[in-house]
């Protein structure tokens, strides 16, 4: 079951360039999502302060500076 | 040799498992925060509103009385916040997992997932928390919010650098050295970056004099607990999903060999 003693290199199934772009796009989208939850004050979400207020308690309890 | 069974799964497969693990862990963290943290948030808001009746709130400050979202809505929004945040963190963990797959020295997905989640908890949560602990409503000067946000983000980066320095120290001492020497090198690298960051980064003393110390402590403990639940959940769930996936792939590869 355990393969930790195997010495063969891991094989990448995706092409390196395509993988790089997929990774970059993923990191960008996830960073935007993190920003919306943790830091946005209406500038990006275009909802005024609605989303900011809706996730107010979460932001405080996740330890992000809020106000 | 059943090579297929040990082939790294495609990025999107790993990503979906990270997002799923993060979403579930986020909802669990939300449940913990709801039970352990919400009473303290309510108490802090009560203090904030009592103070606001004496002094007009400064421009740009929150006023919870005529908020866009009711308190009930904000309590429900807690799960939206932790769920989305958890999914984002799980996705980033999965991305780190794939990026590091060429360099790691173990094929044990569970071990790698748990190590990454532990590293994130230490570097991105605990190190920043000890410098800039979470604050309940009524604590924190709205005038310094931008400065505090930037320094907090910097501290998250520095915390991750500290963990990275620790792993560099661990690897710098050869694997034939005794474990305590490798551990000492890891602790040395981690502490060096952490202590220097703590000294260099600015501090903020914004807790009002009359704010109850026990409430502050209880809130901060609940906040730290929320993050611990989140990252423990992400690590365990991601490890479990990857393990299940590997077993399934290994089983699928067997008949063809």
From TrEMBL, chain A:
The keyword Transmembrane helix applies. The chain crosses the membrane at residues 20-39. It comes from Micromonospora parathelypteridis. Keywords: Membrane, Transmembrane, Transmembrane helix. This is CbtB-domain containing protein.
Automatic annotation (TrEMBL), chain B:
The chain crosses the membrane at residues 12-35, 78-100, 112-130, 150-170, 182-201, 221-241. Keywords: Membrane, Transmembrane, Transmembrane helix. InterPro entries: CbtA_put (IPR012666). This is Putative cobalt transporter CbtA. It comes from Micromonospora parathelypteridis. The lineage of its organism: Bacteria, Bacillati, Actinomycetota, Actinomycetes, Micromonosporales.
């Amino acid at each position: 079951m355990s393969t930790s003693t195997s010495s063969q290199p891991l094989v990448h199934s995706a092409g390196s360039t395509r993988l790089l772009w997929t990774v970059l796009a993923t990191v960008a989208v996830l960073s935007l999502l993190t920003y919306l939850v943790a830091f946005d004050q209406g500038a990006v979400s275009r909802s005024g302060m609605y989303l900011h207020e809706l996730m107010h308690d979460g932001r405080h309890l996740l330890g992000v500076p809020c106000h | 040799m059943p090579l297929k069974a040990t082939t790294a799964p495609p990025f999107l497969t790993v990503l979906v498992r990270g997002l799923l693990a993060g979403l579930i862990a986020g909802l669990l963290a939300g449940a913990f925060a709801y039970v352990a943290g919400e009473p303290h948030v309510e108490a802090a808001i009560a203090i904030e509103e009592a103070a606001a009746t004496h002094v007009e709130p400064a421009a740009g400050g929150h006023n919870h009385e005529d908020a866009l979202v009711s308190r009930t809505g904000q309590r429900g929004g807690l799960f939206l916040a932790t769920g989305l945040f958890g999914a984002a963190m799980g996705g980033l963990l999965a991305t780190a997992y794939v990026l590091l797959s060429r360099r790691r020295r173990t094929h044990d997905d569970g071990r790698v997932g748990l190590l990454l989640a532990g590293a994130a908890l230490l570097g991105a949560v605990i190190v920043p928390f000890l410098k800039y602990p979470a604050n309940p409503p009524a604590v924190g000067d709205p005038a310094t919010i931008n400065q505090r946000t930037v320094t907090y983000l910097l501290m998250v980066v520095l915390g991750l650098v500290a963990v990275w320095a620790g792993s560099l120290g661990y690897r710098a001492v050869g694997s034939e050295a005794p474990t305590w020497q490798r551990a000492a090198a890891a602790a040395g690298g981690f502490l060096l970056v952490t202590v220097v960051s703590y000294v260099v980064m600015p501090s903020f003393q914004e807790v009002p004099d009359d704010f109850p110390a026990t409430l502050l402590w209880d809130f901060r403990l609940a906040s730290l607990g929320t993050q611990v639940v989140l990252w423990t959940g992400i690590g365990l769930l991601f490890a479990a999903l990857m393990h299940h996936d590997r077993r399934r792939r290994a089983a699928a590869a067997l008949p063809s060999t």
